[in-house]
Each structure stands twice: as structure tokens, then as C-alpha cells.
Design a protein that fits this description.
The structure is a single chain. This protein has about 425 residues and is mostly helical. It has two domains: about 15-100 and about 385-425; about 160-340, no CATH class. It is about 85% helix and about 0% strand. The protein has 18 helices and no strands. Helix 8 packs antiparallel against helix 14 (about 285-305) and helix 10 (about 200-220) packs antiparallel against helix 12 (about 235-260). The longest helix is centred in the C-terminal third of the chain and has 40 residues, at about 385-425. The model is unreliable at about 1-10 (pLDDT under 50).
């Protein structure tokens, strides 16, 4: 049963078992304390019956009387904490149920005052290298894989639950403003620079040469026809001869360029690329053109139903990937987390930076939200069912309180004997 009184039946079996053990232990201690009170009553009755014949019986009678008084007083005090004794609505009884609002306020204030102090929390956290512990945990493949599965499943549910309007809001409010500040021309120049380093562009150039050769050989008739249209006063055989020789010359040149990596045309092409890279990085005209082109693309993306297409594409790819036995998303996340953990574990400087950031974040969160946490504790405790709160507290500390009843019985008896002795002496 929950504290609100409306148990949902989802509590772990171990929790129920522990609570049952506490309930049985409380019942045993309660029976023991009550049995001791009954024993004092029987002893008192026996002493009353035999005191006329035996004067020494006054001593156990004093013990029994005072023990009964102590037992009854402690029983009343213990019961009055949680309920009305014998159902009688006496003043200052059922203290805990009646004082639940005050207890809630006191508990919230106590937690805020003694636990949610920034200096106290930071002092505790500063002694732990949280970044190193996290790095070592992430460096283990099973941990990274488990965390990656959680992130991937959450990501899949997030995308599956998103609507077109949410994608549009996300793109227009977060993505598009960042894109509008992007220097597309410079990015293109940097990409071309990376592409040309180490002659990475040569395979692309070779592929372009082969594609151009294929196009020429496939469109020879069309070129002849166009040449004949432009040259009306020359005979057709002459036109065909000129075009054939022209195409043959071009093909021969393409073969030369393809076979010789140091060909002059290749050097000219490389120089043209380097010139273009410099212009893309430095030219104001290229920068303006790039930004204008990007703005037009963003505008067209929104008008042409791009949000719906993007959402459908994400859903299709994500569902297909996460549902497969070999998920690229899960593998990438797991490898990234493991690599991150290993790198942090190897670099003490990064650990120190992360720990400083974590402590500053903890200080900011505690300072900003400590009052809200205190208020949350107060409101939650106030919302609990008063009778259930009383029952829970009694289960937790009831055994100790029954021990108080037992001790009160013996202490009362001893005090009764001492009082009897003092009375005789006096």
C-alpha cells in the first residue's frame, strides 16, 4: 500500500517481505510488553491477597504497583503518538496524524537546512573523482552497451512520438538560426581543401574523365547533327569528317590525361581547384552567394513539405536500424561511449576539468533549486494519508517503543521499591 492509501500492486516482493517482517516483530514486542503488564497485575493481586500473612510481601507489592503504573503510563504515551487510546478522543493524542502538516513543514525545512547546503554538498563531492569513476565505468563494454541501448531506445521512442509540427518548430527555432549564420562558402572551401590533400581528388577526376569519354562516344550522332545545322554551306561528308576527327582528338586527349598523372591539364585543374578554394574562403561575393543559396534552400525545405519527409525518413531509418539484429546506431553509441570513457581515464587533465564543471553544476543546481526541493518534500508529505503515515512510522520504530514500555515497567517497579524503602526509613 502506498502512502496515499491507493496501492497499485506494483511494489517489489522484497519490500513487502521486509515490511511483513517488521509488522510481525512489532506484534511480538507488543505482546511481550502487554504480557509483562499482565504479569505485574497478577503479582499485585497475589501480594494483596498474601500481605496480611507475610509482611515482606509489601516489597514485591510496591514493585508490582509501580511497575503497573510505569507500564500503563508508557503504554498510553506510545499509543497516543499514533492513535487515540481505547478510541477515546483525549487531548494530545493521535499526535502524529494530527501533526502531519507541521511534520511536513519541519521535514522540508530540516532537509533544506542540514542537507541542501551548497557548501556541505560540494565538500562531500570534492573528495570523489567522479570523472574517473564514470570513465572507468564507461570503458567497460557491457556498461557502454547497456547505456547505448537505453539511449537508442529513448531516441527511437522520441522520434516515433514526434509530429510534423514539432519537427518544424525544432528546425525553425534551433537548426535554421544556426544554419543562417553558417559561412557556406568557407565550409565548401575547407571541404575542397581536405579533398585535395594527398591527391584524394584524383579518383574523382579519373571517374569524370571516363564519364566524359562515355558521353562523347554515346552522343557522336547528335554532335554531328548539331554541327551540320550550324554549318549550312559545307557538304555533309565534310561535316562528318570534321566531327569525327574532333571527337577522336578529344578522346585521345582524355586518354593521355587519364594515363599521365603529371599531365599539364591535370596541373591546370589542380591550380583551378586551389584558386577556387582561396576564393571560397576569402571572397565576399562567394560568401554572399553561399548565404543566399542556403537561405533559399531553407525556405524551399519548409515550403516543399520537407518536415514531413524528414520525419518519415528518420522514422523509417531509425525503426529499421533499431529493430535489426545489428544496429548501427547502437554500435556507434556504444563505441563512442567506450572510447570517451577510455580517453577520459587516460587524461587526468580532462578529469580535473570535468570534476570542476561537475562541482560548479552541482553548486548551481543546489543553490537554484534547494527551496523547490524542500517545498516538494513538504507537499509530498502533506499529500500522504495521515493514518497510513502513522502506521508506517509505527512499523519502523514501534519495536523500540515497545521496548520502552518493557523498560518502563521494570524501571517503575525499581522506583516503587526505592520509594517503599525510603518511606520505611522515614
Amino acid at each position: 500500500m502506498s502512502l496515499s492509501g491507493g496501492g497499485d500492486g506494483t511494489r517489489p516482493a522484497t519490500v513487502d517481505a521486509r515490511e511483513d517482517d517488521k509488522v510481525h516483530g512489532l506484534a511480538r514486542m507488543r505482546r511481550s510488553a502487554s504480557a509483562l503488564l499482565l504479569l505485574m497485575s497478577v503479582l499485585l493481586l497475589a501480594c494483596v491477597a498474601w500481605q496480611g500473612d507475610h509482611a515482606w510481601v509489601a516489597w514485591p507489592r510496591a514493585f508490582a504497583e509501580a511497575g503497573m503504573a510505569g507500564a500503563i503510563a508508557d503504554w498510553y504515551a506510545v499509543v497516543a503518538l499514533f492513535r487515540h487510546p481505547l478510541g477515546l478522543r483525549l487531548p494530545h493524542t493521535a499526535i502524529i496524524p494530527k501533526s502531519q502538516p507541521r511534520i511536513a513543514e519541519s521535514l522540508g525545512g530540516f532537509v533544506e537546512e542540514h542537507f541542501l547546503q551548497p557548501e556541505l554538498i560540494i565538500a562531500r563531492l570534492r573528495g570523489h573523482n567522479a570523472a574517473q569513476a564514470l570513465a572507468r565505468w564507461l570503458a567497460q563494454s557491457e556498461n557502454s552497451r547497456g547505456l547505448a541501448d537505453v539511449v537508442a531506445d529513448s531516441l527511437g521512442r522520441l522520434i516515433d512520438g514526434m509530429e510534423e509540427a514539432q519537427i518544424a518548430w525544432l528546425f525553425e527555432r534551433i537548426v535554421a538560426p544556426q544554419l543562417r549564420t553558417l559561412d557556406v562558402a568557407r565550409v565548401a572551401g575547407d571541404a575542397l581543401d581536405v579533398l585535395t590533400q594527398g591527391d584524394r581528388h584524383r579518383p574523382l577526376l579519373d571517374h569524370g574523365l571516363a564519364a566524359f569519354e562515355k558521353w562523347l562516344t554515346s552522343n557522336t550522332d547528335m554532335i554531328k547533327a548539331k554541327f551540320s545545322e550550324a554549318s549550312r554551306y559545307t557538304p555533309a561528308p565534310l561535316d562528318a569528317y570534321i566531327v569525327r576527327k574532333f571527337i577522336e582528338g578529344i578522346l585521345a586527349l582524355l586518354h593521355e590525361v587519364a594515363a599521365n598523372h603529371e599531365h599539364a591539364l591535370r596541373r591546370q585543374f589542380d591550380e583551378a581547384l586551389q584558386t577556387l578554394i582561396v576564393q571560397l574562403r576569402t571572397s565576399a561575393a562567394h560568401r554572399r552567394f553561399g548565404k543566399s543559396l542556403l537561405r533559399d534552400c531553407i525556405r524551399l525545405f519548409g515550403r516543399a513539405g520537407g518536415y514531413r519527409g524528414l520525419l518519415d525518413w528518420l522514422r523509417t531509418r531509425m525503426v529499421a536500424d533499431l529493430g535489426g539484429e545489428q544496429s548501427a546506431v547502437r554500435d556507434v553509441l556504444a563505441r563512442t561511449l567506450m572510447s570517451l570513457g577510455r580517453r577520459i581515464a587516460r587524461e587526468p587533465a580532462m578529469q580535473r576539468q570535468l570534476n570542476v564543471w561537475w562541482l560548479e553544476l552541482a553548486r548551481e543546481l543546489v543553490t537554484r533549486y534547494r527551496h523547490l526541493l524542500s517545498a516538494l518534500i513538504t507537499e509530498v508529505v502533506k499529500s500522504w494519508n495521515a493514518g497510513e503515515v502513522s502506521r508506517k512510522i509505527e512499523i519502523e520504530i514501534g519495536r523500540e517503543l515497545q521496548c520502552v514500555r518493557i523498560n518502563g515497567t521494570f524501571v517503575g517497579g525499581v522506583v516503587g521499591v526505592l520509594i517503599h524503602a525510603v518511606t520505611l526509613v522515614a
